Amino acid sequence: MKHIKLAYIGGGSKAWARVFMNDLALAEGLSGEIALYDIDLAAAERNRRIGERINAAEEAVSKWDYVVYESLESALIGADFVAISILPGTFDEMESDVHAPEKYGIYQSVGDTVGPGGVLRAMRTVPIYEEFARAIRKCCPEAWVINLTNPMTACCKTLFDVFPAIKAFGCCHEVFHAEEFLACVAAEELGVPKPDRRAITVDASGINHFTWITEANFEGHDLLKLLPKSIEKWYNEGHYEYGDPLDFRSDPFRYGNKVKMDLFRRYGVLAAAGDRHLAEFMKKSRYLRDKNAPEEWLFHLTSVDYRRADRSRKIEESELIASGAKPVKPEKSSEELIELMKAILGFGKIVSNANTVNRGQVEGLPIGSVVEVNHVFDKDSVKPIVTNPLPGPVLQMVAENAMNIENTYYGIKERDLEKIFAAFMAQPLCCELSWSEGEELFRTMIRNTKQYLSPYYDLRGIL
Amino acid sequence: MKHIKLAYIGGGSKAWARVFMNDLALAEGLSGEIALYDIDLAAAERNRRIGERINAAEEAVSKWDYVVYESLESALIGADFVAISILPGTFDEMESDVHAPEKYGIYQSVGDTVGPGGVLRAMRTVPIYEEFARAIRKCCPEAWVINLTNPMTACCKTLFDVFPAIKAFGCCHEVFHAEEFLACVAAEELGVPKPDRRAITVDASGINHFTWITEANFEGHDLLKLLPKSIEKWYNEGHYEYGDPLDFRSDPFRYGNKVKMDLFRRYGVLAAAGDRHLAEFMKKSRYLRDKNAPEEWLFHLTSVDYRRADRSRKIEESELIASGAKPVKPEKSSEELIELMKAILGFGKIVSNANTVNRGQVEGLPIGSVVEVNHVFDKDSVKPIVTNPLPGPVLQMVAENAMNIENTYYGIKERDLEKIFAAFMAQPLCCELSWSEGEELFRTMIRNTKQYLSPYYDLRGIL
Amino acid sequence: MKHIKLAYIGGGSKAWARVFMNDLALAEGLSGEIALYDIDLAAAERNRRIGERINAAEEAVSKWDYVVYESLESALIGADFVAISILPGTFDEMESDVHAPEKYGIYQSVGDTVGPGGVLRAMRTVPIYEEFARAIRKCCPEAWVINLTNPMTACCKTLFDVFPAIKAFGCCHEVFHAEEFLACVAAEELGVPKPDRRAITVDASGINHFTWITEANFEGHDLLKLLPKSIEKWYNEGHYEYGDPLDFRSDPFRYGNKVKMDLFRRYGVLAAAGDRHLAEFMKKSRYLRDKNAPEEWLFHLTSVDYRRADRSRKIEESELIASGAKPVKPEKSSEELIELMKAILGFGKIVSNANTVNRGQVEGLPIGSVVEVNHVFDKDSVKPIVTNPLPGPVLQMVAENAMNIENTYYGIKERDLEKIFAAFMAQPLCCELSWSEGEELFRTMIRNTKQYLSPYYDLRGIL
Amino acid sequence: MKHIKLAYIGGGSKAWARVFMNDLALAEGLSGEIALYDIDLAAAERNRRIGERINAAEEAVSKWDYVVYESLESALIGADFVAISILPGTFDEMESDVHAPEKYGIYQSVGDTVGPGGVLRAMRTVPIYEEFARAIRKCCPEAWVINLTNPMTACCKTLFDVFPAIKAFGCCHEVFHAEEFLACVAAEELGVPKPDRRAITVDASGINHFTWITEANFEGHDLLKLLPKSIEKWYNEGHYEYGDPLDFRSDPFRYGNKVKMDLFRRYGVLAAAGDRHLAEFMKKSRYLRDKNAPEEWLFHLTSVDYRRADRSRKIEESELIASGAKPVKPEKSSEELIELMKAILGFGKIVSNANTVNRGQVEGLPIGSVVEVNHVFDKDSVKPIVTNPLPGPVLQMVAENAMNIENTYYGIKERDLEKIFAAFMAQPLCCELSWSEGEELFRTMIRNTKQYLSPYYDLRGIL
What we know:
LDH C-terminal domain-like; homotetramer; alpha/beta
């Protein structure tokens, strides 16, 4: 039985916290303290109560001490792990990120990674992460730090740049969805029951939400060779690894994988993220030409109103659980975080994708930029595996976005709005903006979110 | 007196040939044979007659033997230098390159370097250059090969890729224009007579037609620090280093440098090519949004009809010269080719820009891609100088185009239309095309120029 | 049950063949054909008979078809795996490799990897491997090729250089011994029973026989932090992971690990190969100053006479087994080859060290040279893991040897004796030779082994 | 006329100061202040008086204000150039550097660059250069800094590492001697008068005192192709570019170039430093086996006693000049420093060798290490030229030494005696030391020079 302290930073208002606490309850061999810290103290407190409900559940194998801390540093001191999952700003800021660009014909399906929304979100998030990095260096320099916040690449870059010796990685489940999709291909083409995604071995390379699978094996079958057959069947109507390909009409987090299939036809490798994400890394004419284009490509835009309603539902549910009105019944989720932590604690090797600094694992991307590839997770060790080269045109698109994120990051680091604007205009989704439209939009988005920017930037020329 | 053989491949229909022959006539210390080879034999013959007229001119210091060859190999054998300046296809193909995309809202100011026209032109040119490279390897492997043809980067790449030991470089005068522009800045801000551009020292780095000056010195003055003042004065009305900034209205090869000034304001470094070229490397919304956008940025599109008329005039003039009806009077041009050749022959060192394979001279661009930087030209030696790092957002744009050209080249090398199409769609000027529009345009442009493509590509799926 | 064909090239006279056949017999889930090819046909035939004896053993879980082939190509056709384990030349050549340099004060403890013996052995081996690579490209380009022959680095380099798309890796158990040594440390310092070496996680980086462990974990204990304590106890008397540290006096394949402990004290990282190997990568004054130095460092030189006697015993034993006079009783060896093959066949991931081309996994060693690091072995996939940086002085020594091997290889590839001689003199073990002594020794060693060199090299200046 | 301030740090006791002041007096177009600073104030004062004598000479074209400063910072404030030429410690310390190792059979011909003497000298020098770099950053961050002190590579590394934005380069005339040698080859083989070395164009690449010429041109003649003929004639008796090859017997700064010729025969490229320097970068058995080996290779060891006597003579002469007893008659020296400064001031481009940080100019050496190649010197600009690749075995030797110097530097930076000792033992000249001999020698050399080390290092374990 390993006894650990995990500092959980943020996560107050996220359903993800519940999922994670359920997984913790089922984590055999682990116990200890979950140190909850959130700028919304009440949310942290609610999570604590949920944690205790889960502890009390019959299925709970591991019991955890859920403790709420009122300062970041006190939560971090003595931590073995730090998981960070914050919402930078509120949904009001996200509303601006996602919807303000629509006036200029820019429709973002997610708006938290790249594109104009991704840049503004990075502007809010990076300064907070600078503080996190400094606090970790001071309070728990040996802790393993797991980033769960978007924009993933910029958040991880901040941690590594401010505190180079940090033991950190970024964790995202998007690649898993692509593996599930490949599991469907295996089932379809081999006539077997849909296998567990872990039975499929992939080489994935790129940056978060724009990672590409260049190799996929299932029991000796080269799935990328089988894929064209499935695509022929599925292309028009779509295919969804967890349900009906048309589910996206009611749930905009879903999609029909038509973008992914189209990209495979064009480039011969499989993009390993949800279609909503993929579309945002590409020029807008491709999959986000206008408000209606997504429907044609079998996905929908995720409006912030939808997110608001979704979160209200989830908070409501959380309240019911916290108060005991709704019973909890821990079930293992499809998340892998506990497994990664256990591997780091010495329970056995795992290979899984993660985001770390490029030291040579992705040929052709800048050394020092944050990339996403398979890593070996082992006792106190997370090491990247060298990946297959990406096809030229794919490498070009990934490099373009990787360089844009680097430029965004350094502009933010230097609090230099002109540099940030240059990176803003370089976004593939901004490719149809004239300079003056771009300036107008950038200023508007800054004004909309000024409450979260003015502590860090000199906005006098803009407000 | 050095006696050399220079094989002049192509150039039959170019006024540039005359300029070059005039410079040759004034090249003290050099003499020998100019071996003319052109698939248009009559044009080569006309050049021979012009050469002889020039020889006969009073001002001619050096007399040259102008000899027309009917085969490439015979022209190459024994050559000390090979200058290549061809038109791949005719103006009919160029008409398609430049104007076919207009139906899709893509207005190209030049259409021979990047953008849809640049890709199609590369498709015609690279296979011819493969033959050139093989013939040079066979007939004159020790010769210095000077490329003058566009698309410069792809042509040079072909020479280096097919015959890695080739002694070659690509030569372009666009950087000179930026130096002239800086000479105007020096005059304006320092109150001196406009200095010779050679008195200005620059560090220029990038790829042909998209090179950037990061450092410029004139007699100890940092011209990039003086530039903002000149830009303040010139921005609205433009400034042209050789005349009236509005000349572009009658002569579309001219421009008012507003693009260059705008880019300097945004990125802090000076783009070192004519504005017509620069605009094509950027997303179309920036300077080529629609047919009328160039006027606003103080340049015009160069129609192929204009080129046709221009060439007719020049050929007519050539005929008059060849026949003796028009007298010749050699004057030194602003071209530098003779000086470079003389440096290579040991007449003294020169530093000038050239295009060669990146071996480390430009940090952040792919090793092995063709880049344009200053080189030291010296006795049998052309060596690149390591350049200053480019600012992040500029490097991103240069890298994007450099990778696109690499991808175009490898697609052509493998005669793989899908790969070429991927690179076609990745052009910044194509950023507003949907996949289907792009396919339609690509097919149309291939059909339009099929006569020059079908010897090399399997076009069955397209015609 | 996977049915495979494995071509086993060479190995005729090696006891290792028996070990491997035993392991095959115990490889659950695998069966198929073992295609035996050896230039010594009788030896291959003997192996076939031993294989059949093993098949007949009660313990044999898997039965294999042992087939002797008289040509390399016929053995290779249809192979899924190719294992290569040859003796280049005979023990007479090895006698020269190992003992000829002694006249010049160079005492080699092994003589097959680096040092004068390593260079001469590479001269005999590389041309044979060039043929292997071409035959594999022709007969079984998709097969996984496992090199077991020394000099490991040069053999692997040849395979990758001649046939770049080859699916190959080199396999060596020396790192395992260092892991066993660390297992002893764990037992000593933690007071636990000696753990299985697989329970210890290491990061090892370098080149074959000169790999360095920069990180070692056992159940959360940092073994490199515990190591100094063990070294304090063991340094003087030595420590041997498999027995008495003084065993080396009767069995020169054994050693007391004093070199390894000494190096750890000096550099803070643990060299991961037997001390006999390590000493040869370093300047001779360090551990091989003279004939008696090894005794002081608790190892002995391995004379070729010892090898001859050892092999005679083993062949004798093989004959007894082949004839049935000696019963076989398959037991699982400590070798890992079967496990690696099973991982490649999809039986589950393994992390183990292997030799492949450096694509970024070892920072500071030449890209394209062959390096040894941990790899993930998985279904049809062997991928290097990016390693920790080596300490500066260790990197210098590894780079020195890696560059020497590259230079040796390219000299051999070009059949250029001067280049090979330059690499010969650059060997750390040759550091005390004057040029003329070196020339004399090099010529002598070439003359001694001319029978195996004259087919490949122009020796007229030497014989 | 350019008016400048040059801070001349050190140089008090060097004849070089006189040479430099003579050159200054002849530097047309330049004038200003020479700010003299030396920890030996009297020496600076003597230089001031000499400077004034030179000013008064008839031949003096430029008059300079020679001003003695008593603090480093006051000398630096306002400087346009800083030239640094110090003796770290006294000849007593140098006596230890050069002669202490002789007890262990290590005979150093110079002892100030690499080898045991080079390491100890770096230990004394680097901490002083750290102070210089900080003072320059504070007092004259825009000044051009010219290093003239040995060990050149470590001194330059310190400047660049402590103050990365420094405008600095290291200046050494050794390459010029090799060019003079090549001028002799040109004369010998072409039957022309010995040309000026500036008429010979070379590509030289490597590290200071171990630079290699891969290409040499004189009026179109490939001198490296002519060289074997000259070597055939000169090898046995030697050849000296400035006099009799046997001069070295009376003047140990001279040499017969036999080492250089021998290396050319072995590697095909020409080492571009005096033979005394070259020998020290190689294993001692090659050219420094014992006390008598140099005689055989036509050079002599430079004893510190010789240096003492030499300096006494020069100081005596300086005193005579300073007092007016000996008349001065400025003549242009063969040094190039003034020319480089004039190029930086805008008097015209020069190509010459210099030491700067490797940013890609030497393929295969660590990025960030200090290397020596040709640079273009131009108005406020010193830029490295990308060099030809070095042959494999030469690159190995250069890389070995470059890595050793890097390791020495980082050991000193961290004041870590163990790391420094590791780099000490890795010196090619130390290759025959056992660990214990090495430790003994290292401790002895530290004790001998402790006066200059104890301010910086914790020597308690050693004294």
